[in-house]
Design a protein that fits this description.
Mean pLDDT of chain B: 92
Radius of gyration of chain A: 21 Å
Strand order of the largest sheet of chain A: 1-2
Structural class of chain A: mainly alpha
Distance between the termini of chain B: 38 Å
Oligomer: heterodimer
CATH architecture of chain A: Orthogonal Bundle
Number of domains of chain A: 1
Largest interface: A-B, 36 and 46 residues
Number of domains of chain B: 2
CATH class of the largest domain in chain B: Alpha Beta
Radius of gyration of chain B: 18 Å
CATH class of chain A: Mainly Alpha
Helix content of chain A: over 70%
Distance between the termini of chain A: 14 Å
Order of helices and strands of chain A: HHHHHHEHHHHEHHHHHH
Helix content of chain B: 25-40%
Chain lengths: 353, 243
């Protein structure tokens, strides 16, 4: 028991230490570039998971908030000079708050619908946002896009500030996820996901937890959009508000496993690095898309609930078999048994407190 | 003593069907009141109207002397009016302990507390002992038998310390032993001061447990009285057997 107790936090520490040390291995720029994009998607999948995974509301509109973050960042620096290269990073929390504030009324309206209807309502929001980005020329400069002054970082270590900022953001997103899973907020969201009407009838703060998860989720997504705009230096409506971004983060979360801590991160690392590597190795043709689809199909056929939940199930069954073989009675004292987190997260996450 | 629950001229139509047609009834405190009637007589719709799951077209519902017509189901639950469903609605992917914990009607601040705190475990532990579900405390609700799920749903609504519990067919689809268990728990909680309003088709269960009995037909009350009188009432016989 005690060895498992520390495995969760240990896994987190090792993962982030490894991530943070990667740039010191003198990796090539294209590798770091892939890592920057992978981290962006890891943060966005983790954020999407709060709504699409835990609350069970499959939003297809998250790319709209990615775009809002990107435009918020670009527009701010149209009107203000950049005094230091790090200034845009300091602005990120404000970008997040702005998107969360916009997300609140959106959620009040959209979350009156559920499942497939909710998906359609939110994807509509995405296209409305894209159309606005194209047509509000006075504000967004339309199809010609907006530019942000290039960061004054030295060419040799150009990616690092973005990379480290994204690591912080990933730690934040995963920290929030962990907190949700360990609190009554997660319990309430699980009830909403399973049977929302029943949940309402037993006093669960249904509307409140839904709005909270949506707001936090889109706030984090917008912060990634802000980093992306600064990293690219130039944004166009079709890339800033891109349905493919939405689809990617949904696929990554499904692949890794919804409503788990590590699932979305794992999904992002597999799909984004896989896609980029295939694109590099297969050249400019679109063949990489086929290979990408094959990977996805295979995993979905073999593990329809996603990688992490499938592995958890297998481990759980094996533990039970061992218990039965040993003739051990099923644990009945509440205090010494597997806690709820065991199932909904990586097994080792349980109880560090 | 004033009525605990009072329904006055409640109406609900679905298209052209008057599912509940100007229904009025009274539930006195500390009773186990039965609500019976042929299929389609509007019992479940009436439950949904009273507990805030459906808005009535017109009429009035008052609970503990206060008008609660059209109130939200969650706030009614917190004020002591809880219900169960015909199909035993529990959360299959949550453990038995979690199913109970989530039903405690938490305040905003408590949402950020631990998923299962020590005091939760203690409180849940007492209930589990009472309902003899201790040995399955850490199983998922999906792993329980149907009867156990019904017990769990019943136990869960007790987490809010209700004053009135409305049970929708508590014995439907469960084995005879479980029916006795259910009856035992209802009696025990009734003795502790909880009022029950029970929709039920099992007449022997109703006759030995409930008093008074309210009969609903075509969306309105046609009889209310002691169980012994129900069986001889011509209106009731008409409703069940056709005139």
């Amino acid at each position: 028991m005690s060895s498992r107790r520390y495995a969760g936090p240990l896994r987190g520490v090792v993962f982030f230490a490894l991530l943070a040390s990667l740039p010191s291995f003198n990796l090539a720029h294209w590798v770091l570039n892939i890592l920057v994009f992978t981290l962006m998607y890891a943060v966005m999948s983790s954020s999407w998971n709060l709504v699409g995974g835990f609350a069970g509301y499959p939003s297809l509109g998250h790319a709209a908030f990615f775009g809002i973050g990107a435009y918020a960042m670009a527009l701010w620096f149209q009107h203000h000079a950049i005094h230091s290269g790090y200034e845009p990073f300091l602005l990120l929390p404000l970008v997040g708050l702005l998107a969360a504030a916009i997300g609140l009324p959106v959620a009040v309206i959209a979350m009156r619908t559920r499942s497939d209807v909710f998906a359609i309502v939110t994807i509509t929001l995405l296209f409305v946002t894209q159309t606005l980005a194209f047509n509000l020329r006075g504000l967004t400069n339309g199809a010609q896009g907006l530019s942000i002054a290039a960061p004054p970082f030295s060419a040799g270590t150009f990616e690092r500030p973005f990379y480290y900022t994204l690591i912080v953001l990933l730690a934040l997103a995963m920290g929030i996820t962990f907190g949700v899973m360990r609190s009554k907020l997660g319990l309430s969201l699980a009830a909403v996901r399973a049977d929302e009407d029943k949940a309402r009838g037993i006093g669960v703060r249904v509307l409140g937890v839904k709005l909270l998860s949506f707001s936090v989720s889109v706030g984090l997504t917008a912060m990634v959009g802000g980093i992306w705009a600064y990293y690219e230096g130039f944004i166009y409506p079709q890339f800033a508000v891109d349905p493919l971004v939405t689809i990617a983060i949904v696929l990554m979360t499904f692949l890794g496993g919804r409503a788990t801590l590590w699932g979305p991160v794992l999904g992002a690392f597999i799909l984004e690095t896989g896609q980029q590597t295939l694109a590099y190795s297969l050249g400019g043709s679109q063949f990489y898309l086929i290979a990408y689809a094959m990977v996805f199909l295979l995993v979905m056929l073999l593990m329809p609930r996603g990688i992490v939940p499938s592995i958890q199930d297998r481990l759980r069954q094996r533990r039970r078999r061992i218990e039965v073989d040993a003739g051990a009675p099923r644990p009945s004292s509440p205090r010494m048994t597997r806690s709820s987190d065991t199932r909904s997260s990586v097994p080792a996450l349980k109880g560090h407190g | 003593m004033a009525a605990l629950l009072e329904v006055q001229n409640l109406v609900k139509t679905f298209g052209t069907v008057r599912a509940v047609d100007s229904a009025s009834l009274v539930v006195e405190p500390n009773t186990i009141t039965a609500l019976i009637g042929p299929n389609g007589s509007g019992k479940t719709t009436l439950f949904n109207l009273i507990t805030g799951y459906l808005p009535p077209d017109s009429g009035r519902v008052s609970f503990r002397g206060r008008d609660i017509t059209g109130s939200d189901a969650g706030s009614l639950y917190r004020r002591g009016l809880s219900r169960t469903f015909q199909q035993a609605r529990v959360f299959p992917a949550l453990t038995v302990q979690e199913n109970l914990t989530v039903a405690a009607g938490y305040s905003w601040g408590q949402l950020f507390g631990r998923r299962l705190s020590r005091s939760d475990r203690e409180r849940v532990g007492e209930l589990l002992e009472e309902f003899r579900l201790g040995h399955v405390a850490d199983l998922f609700a999906s792993e329980l038998s149907y009867g156990q799920r019904k017990l769990l749903e019943f136990a869960a609504v007790l987490m809010s310390s209700p004053s009135l519990i409305m049970l929708d067919e508590p014995t439907a689809g469960v084995n005879p032993v479980m029916i006795e268990t259910m009856e035992h728990h209802i009696r025990q909680r009734h003795a502790a001061g909880i009022t029950f309003l029970i929709v039920e088709h099992d007449m022997t269960f109703v006759m030995r447990l409930c008093n008074p009995v309210i009969v609903l037909d075509q969306g309105r009350e046609i009889f209310a009285g002691a169980p012994a009188e129900v069986q001889n009432n011509p209106l009731v016989l008409d409703a069940y057997l056709g005139s």
